[in-house]
Amino acid sequence: MDKLTSVLDILKLRNAVEANKSLQHVLQGFNSADDHDALSTELVNSGLLVELHHLLETEHASLDFTADVIAEVAKTESCREACVQAGLVPRLLALLSSEDLNTCRQSCRALGNICFDNDVGRDAINALEGMDKLLQLLATCFSGTSELHQKLRLSLCGLLLNLTNSHELLQKKAIEGGALEHLEKYLELFPKDDELCKMTLLAVGSLSESELCKKRLEQCQIAVTIANLLSADMDRDLQASILEGLQELTDADHVQAQLAGSKLPSYCISTLSEQPRESDKRDAELNKAASDILIVLLTGDKSMETLYQDGQGAVYKEALTWVHSDVTDLQITGALALGNFARNDDHSIKLIQEKGTLSQLLYLLQTQNEEEIGSNVHRAVLSTLRNLAIPASNKTLLLESNIIQRVLPLCKTKATPVIFKLLGLLRLLIDGHEEAAKSLGTDEEFVSCVVQWCGIREHAGVKGEASRMIAWLVKHSQCPSVTSVVVRQGGVPSLLDLMASEHIVMQNEALVALTLIATINLETAADSLLSHNIVPVLESLVSSDTALPEVVCNCCVLLSAICKSDLLRSAVLSSAIPSQLKSLCDHCNAGIRSQAQKVLMHLGVSIN
To answer: What global pTM score does this model have?
Structure first.
């Protein structure tokens, strides 16, 4: 530090002749410093920024070194605002117009470091129309093949990244000023410049946070341009960066559709077909990135159809083979891909007829353990089976394959994502299939598991699916044995919770199930219904001003059913429900009027 202090003294003499040499000493000090941040802080405290500001205002040959020193100082977080307060930003922006490429480049670096994770710096640049100057410079650097041109382009993209990252106003200005188009041009002109490609991808990712960017992506082909960079002989880290960058752009359906028609799917197939070397972490990361983006493309309806190609698409055909692979990651990718194809009923019907596919999916469920990888396979396969179970014609084929007995062992899992998928599959399988509903509904062990899952509060999806499963078992079996098991295993409280759901469909499912229980097995259920407060819940729904007519009518039907129990009838008469029903007798909805009158008649209460 002593040498640098003497250098600082020379700068304070403001001798332009010695400035160049002094600044180089400062840069050498940074290069050899053990603690870069400590050195920056000490120099700033010693008055370095004042001298740098003076040098920026002086016509001399050391502007590039001056900007370079500022760039080094601004690497230290605590010094960035000090650079702004010292008035360095206006002059650095002016230097972006310098004819000297290195001065221009070092000024970009300095500004980029000043505004890194620093809104004070970003706002200062914005106030001086810095974005316009940056975009103008980006547009003038399409030509030039020297090393300095190459470094300048890299620094410009870095400045754009740091300037726009998490700053909505500057993102908007950049996009409106044509930043996406400039970045796309860079990728087209300099595809072999790995560092520039990486920085450009990061800048595009920063801009993609903006809603305006998502709209602008409809008008340009930058996603396809990025995908076209991919090649097997490219550095693996860069390949992974490109895939990750593309994934940030694929929220929009039109981008998914563009990419589905590009070289990206065939690249992903090729990459996934090469089994990664166990010792190479980069191979595994690249394969995961390829798998992830392929599945994202399949979540869009239009892109999925492009890749399906009437059952002749390469991705579809490969997915059919991947589920037969010995590689677990490929099994997962294959199952997830097929599950997305099966979102379309026509594809789902065709898929279930593909020779050996259903049996292989079921086989995968039985050959995986409880570890994380096994759970991932289970979840992927169950997702596919759930979509296969949606078309009515498929349900019969699935039930004939003995699917329920083959998936029931998964009830022992503790992985809530697997439980969620399992419940969704089983619920769809019993839809309209009375015997299947009876078989599951009379399985005491299964119903006990479902009731326990109704109490899982840390996973709302499992809790909701489990409660609906209880309701569907009752509804689709309409069997005294099933209602007895449900009551005995403690399923009534979950149905009452479902009645309070904010989702109308679930409310009605609960009301229908409880009505069936009360109709079929009221003697067994009465105590449980009363002790779990069915009367206050019904009172709340009947009196609600926001309840839909169909909900109110279903509440009245349930009231009529439970009033056949003296115990429950007495509780209803002691509540506010009779007076509420009298009010409903004047309701504008004829169905509500009629049902309210019926309940009052069952209660023996006069309407007048």
So the answer is: 0.85
